[in-house]
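Our consortium's second objective concerns turning raw sequence data into structural hypotheses that experimental partners can test. To show how far this objective has progressed, the report includes one record in full. It was chosen at random from the queue rather than selected for favorable results. The single chain below, 147 residues long, was entered without modification.
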Amino acid sequence: MSKAQFVQRRDGRVAALQYLFAWSMNVPKNIAEDLRVFFENMEQPREYYAFGEELIHGVIEHCADIDSHIKGLAHNWEFERIAKIDLAILRVAMCEMIHRKDIPPVVSINEAIDLSKQFSNADSKRFINGILDRLKDQLGRDARKVE
């Protein structure tokens, strides 16, 4: 993957995180219209964020399943107490890990940790890493390779 592609994917993850954070606080009546407005206000054209938009749709479509994974993996932690920004980071990473075989799970974990450093507090990276590491061990595939 080229540096430009890497940066574009990272920007897509950031856009997905930002959208899903807002979505978790206030679910819009019309997601298509809400996404149109969201991407209109972004720095790059909407097509640039295609990867991020795929993640947004994946998280929304599989949210109940992803959240049940989080509940099962967040040992000794009430789901309702998870910070909304950390929840959005976990949802994006888990969507990648479970539903995207073209991304090695360790890449999704590293990206999630980087997002937590940028958008959350210092303690979040350990919490997020712990949950995603447990999921990685349950996936039954090589964590460093694409399928």
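The partners drew two points from this record. The chain has one domain: 3-138. The chain has seven helices and no strands. Both points have been shared with the crystallography group to help prioritize constructs.
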